[in-house]
Amino acid sequence: MSDDSTRMITRPGEPPPNDNDGVTVVLSGNSATPASPTAAAETEAGSASSEVLSVGTDVAEFRITELVGQGGFGIVYKAWDQTLERVVALKEYLPSALAVRRQDGSVTARSERHQETFDAGMRSFINEARLLAQFDHPSLLKVYRFWQDKGTTYMVMPFYRGDTLKQALAAMPEPPSETWLLGVLDSVTQALAVMHGAHCYHRDIAPDNILLLEDSGLPVVLDFGAARRVISDMTQAITVILKPGYAPVEQYAETPDMKQGPWTDVYALGAVLHFAVMGKTPVPSVGRMMKDGYQPLAGRTPPLAGYSERFLQAIDQALRVHPDDRPQSMLEMRQLFGLESGDAPTRILTPPPSRPAQSAPSATPAAPAASRSGKGLLLAGVAAAAVLAAVAGVWWSQSGPVEQVATTSVAPATPAEPPAPAKRPFTPAVALNEMLAQANPDIPVRVTVPKSVVKIGVDKFAFTVESARAGHLYVYLASADGNFNILFPNALDKHNQIEANKPLALPRPAWALVAGGPVGTDHLLAVVSAEPRDHSSAGVQRDDLFSQFPAAVAQAIDAAHQTGPSPFLGTPVCDANKPCDDRYGAAQFSIQQQ
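-> structure tokens emitted (594 positions)
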């Protein structure tokens, strides 16, 4: 068994459950192949069982076009959104050991004794969908919507295109540069910090669970797994899915002095970096408890060329065996790697660059096996959208508002070569993502949304913005119907100054907003700028209340824009006698109308 293979651990005397939930399936053309030999033994994405909905079936407004993957806890389909006319991934909760599909398409528990476990797993499935639907961080798996029907639950997600980090590393002729790895780490740690803020931990971070988007190279964290944990706990057939090189010792057997927490994901990320640098995972943590055979990356003779001692020492510290000896949070890990100093790289490349040639053959880390390379169409696997179920359940039972903490996504700088890929298609939502990516992490912004799902014609939009620094607040809206507006300030409410650490509740009474449709998700971006901004150069037009970027004008401006800050941010209006501070912080959030 290879260092990074998946190991199934069950209680003695109990057969392992049928669990292939979490497989990442790679699609190439019309074919479907699993992403690993293990997946090949467990999943046949091209074959359908009686439990699978047939191609052409309509599920709400989504028409199934292809089976992507079927696991022990759910089924993922490629589907066509007939309302918004886009390709999506549709995930259906259907634990095969507990439930069956009837002829009318409904799903029911196999027997009365399975009902309680089936229901508990479905509650967990709903909780994970709700949580991920709230977090709109660009490096976290998104959930467009979820609903219950025919005895089960469905969630709809983007159909992501790109390579896993594992595939990207395998395709590189040499190990990646430190700068590029820091860019990946920057985005992933920010995304995990958002999840950790809700007391939810991934617990399965590995190179095949990080997807690099095809158009931007931005990392997206995949493959959480809440429903299977709840079901396993209730059936007492506890199955822990461990990747031995990436799992810290507390995942093998949690004890009072070795609890799981943010430091658990810290270890896994350290192992991911070790794999990227050395071409292999570190010694399994459980074997290091008796005799630690780990060889530190820092201080080697000869040194590992192309990597700084600080970078290598940080990896070594993240891989400490005892949880207390590692960074205790994503913030501490970011500080350890210098990602909180403002020196983080600014863009991720696709494909990733290789680092400079080694000065001596003996110092060259082994590259991942070439057989693991390949480029295709990827979808987060069957277990791809979940959180720690028990905590998620408590989180969603709280009566207070849900807090969405969005941080700036930053990633590695582009060298002169190779030439930049063709410009991606423009949409208002893409514009918001790029504005978020260019924000300054030194100006943290937080948005609280008390009600993120609103009923058309009934409920009002409401949110609260808080900034660590005083400035001028602008709220941009990319609506479900494709319009692009500046929601705030507006004709009725022009006072957009925000004080440091003082929440500002919007809308104020002068312009209360009632949800007016259409059905779908509205994406919003709160920008706190050190200086006021003039948007006239971006072609903005003011109607009776809000300012709007007309579609044709916005598309033309975006096409002409090459580098630098997004034109839709506007131009800082500065005092000629003082230095101009063009920095801004940003947080993205969403409100779903139904």
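Residues 10-158 form a domain with the Phosphorylase Kinase; domain 1 fold (CATH 3.30.200.20).
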